[in-house]
Amino acid sequence: MNTSFDVAIIGAGIIGLATGMRLLEEFPGLRAAILEKENMIAAHQTGHNSGVIHSGLYYRPGSFKA
Length: 66
Fold this sequence. Notes:
By secondary structure, the chain is α+β, with helices and mostly antiparallel strands. The protein is built from 2 helices and 2 strands; from the N terminus they run βαβα.
């Protein structure tokens, strides 16, 4: 198989998939490959979290936790 891509994204969790989606929105002709070692997406931490995204709204702006 002799296929080339412009970018390779490692991991098909929420961050990898969101990165791929954003890149393709910004650069429609981009050839992107998402590489995942498992046979399904979100097989690790993304699939095992509580569904809460921490946005840092409760911390002082500029702090390390924000």
